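Lab meeting, item 3. Inverse folding demo.
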């Protein structure tokens, strides 16, 4: 039982990641750089302003602590009830005024480490004095590890986050003063939002402006790439080719990336054009030589065949002589066919005008198959053509030669008894002629050059079975001259030639 082959995990092809083009990469790098700079500026600005605001808040807190200590020292000794909100203290006896507490400021006054709490109040933004809860007092006691003067610290209270500082008056009285940090955090939040908005705007402007500048800068490269693509699509294999387009002089200035690429491409095109001209001259010289030689060979070949026939008719030859005359006629006929093939290839290469008429390809197929059956009865030929005519424009004699050469190729390169299938059909406005055989197939190394001239399946043979190596090259040349294509697919047990020709009116 056949099982599908499994690809080895180590040899299975990995999907290739799609690379971004240069323009996208440059814009991405530019935007990323600006983003990093904006982030660094934002971090430094935030840290600098936070340090400044912390210093200002601590200075403000120390002033508030001084005012609280001053109020405690000038307050009446009997005070109010413990933990109850109290009005602002009355002016001292010496006539000086006691500073007012700020909005949100709280004061906590205690005597001794275990003494009764005298006052714990705070003022809301409207100026109303409220009692500080026992929970907040506990938080303050935990935040202030020990009583006495010390640096300010931060305490999270139920009324908000506060910077607090303690002052020990030296007589067992501890005054704790705090200021809210909401204003500082609000300022930092506004700063962060402003920096974020400015950074986003900078990234958008950088992306749009950078993309426009990079696109304008790299636009000449697009022209260079387009020119190179046009040259790459130009058929350079044969015929006269003109490469007139060049990169403009404005884009070939040395010392710049675009200029260096443009100059290099112009030099490359000059070299390619020079090589094509040399190749064209060589092809024309070879074509003229083949045409002249073929024309010159026609006369002596005709004379050889004529003298051979005259010798057969006028001379009394023995068996060896008759065999020699037969051999002479066969070889002269083969040489004449080779000369005619070379002349045909020369005319096709030079694109000489040919007679063109509407040709029923079905009739050509049937006639050619009948001739093939008569010439090679040891190869059964199966043919199938549509009932309706398949009409193509062209030269009927040349179109017939395509099928004759393909059938001859199948007979000569397959064992006796190998079946040959000929199919003709219409597909997508074109006529498709398929000639297939069940022979051993064509060597994979020979497939790329099977349509080249003088290509033989067995390189050691030279003209065996009348093979010249021109049949398939003539078939391709005639097909291309009629605006068609010929393809080959071969494997052991199946070789298929497919000829595609345009239909009349297509």
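The presenter then showed the designed sequence:
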């Amino acid at each position: 039982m056949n099982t599908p082959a499994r690809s080895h995990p180590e040899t299975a092809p990995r999907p290739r990641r799609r690379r971004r083009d240069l323009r996208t990469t440059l814009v991405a790098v530019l935007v990323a750089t600006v983003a990093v700079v904006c982030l660094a500026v934002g971090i430094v600005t935030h840290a600098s302003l936070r340090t400044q605001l912390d210093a200002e808040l601590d200075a403000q807190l120390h002033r508030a602590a001084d005012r609280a200590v001053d109020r405690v020292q000038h307050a009446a000794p009997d005070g109010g009830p413990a933990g109850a909100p109290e009005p602002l203290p009355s002016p001292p006896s010496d006539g000086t005024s006691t500073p007012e507490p700020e909005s949100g400021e709280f004061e906590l006054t205690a005597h001794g480490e275990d003494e009764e709490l005298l006052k714990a109040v705070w003022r809301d933004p409207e100026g109303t004095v409220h009692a500080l809860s026992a929970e907040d007092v506990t938080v303050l006691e935990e935040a202030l590890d020990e009583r006495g003067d010390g640096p300010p610290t931060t305490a999270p209270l139920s009324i908000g986050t506060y910077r607090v500082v303690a002052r020990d008056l030296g007589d067992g009285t501890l005054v704790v003063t705090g200021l809210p940090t909401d204003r500082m955090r609000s300022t930092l939040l506004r700063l962060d939002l402003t920096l974020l908005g400015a950074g986003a705007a900078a990234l958008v402007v950088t992306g749009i402006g950078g993309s426009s500048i990079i696109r304008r800068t790299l636009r000449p490269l697009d022209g260079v790439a387009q020119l190179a693509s046009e040259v790459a699509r130009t058929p350079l294999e044969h015929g006269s080719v003109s490469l007139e387009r060049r990169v403009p002089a404005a884009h070939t200035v040395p010392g710049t990336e675009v200029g260096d690429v443009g100059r290099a491409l112009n030099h490359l095109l000059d070299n390619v054009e020079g090589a094509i001209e040399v190749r064209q001259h060589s092809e024309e010289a070879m074509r003229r030589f083949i045409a002249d030689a073929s024309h010159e060979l026609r006369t002596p070949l005709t004379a050889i065949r004529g003298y051979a026939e005259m010798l057969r008719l006028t001379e009394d030859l023995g068996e060896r002589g008759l065999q020699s005359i037969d051999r002479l006629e066969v070889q002269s006929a083969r040489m004449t066919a080779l000369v005619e093939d070379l002349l045909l290839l020369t005319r096709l290469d030079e694109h000489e005008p040919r007679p063109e008429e509407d040709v029923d390809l079905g009739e050509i197929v049937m006639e050619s198959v009948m001739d093939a059956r008569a010439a090679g009865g040891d190869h059964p030929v199966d043919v199938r053509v549509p009932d309706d005519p398949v009409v193509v424009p062209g030269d009927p004699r040349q179109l017939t030669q395509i099928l004759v050469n393909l059938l001859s190729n199948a007979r000569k390169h397959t064992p006796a008894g190998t079946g040959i299938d000929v199919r003709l059909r219409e597909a997508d406005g074109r006529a498709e002629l398929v000639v297939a055989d069940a022979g051993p197939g064509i060597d994979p190394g020979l497939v790329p050059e099977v349509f080249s001239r003088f290509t033989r399946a067995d390189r050691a043979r030279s003209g065996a079975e009348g093979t010249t190596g021109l049949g398939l090259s003539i078939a391709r040349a005639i097909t291309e001259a009629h605006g068609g294509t010929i393809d080959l697919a071969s494997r052991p047990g199946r070789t298929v030639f497919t000829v595609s020709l345009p239909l009349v009116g297509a």
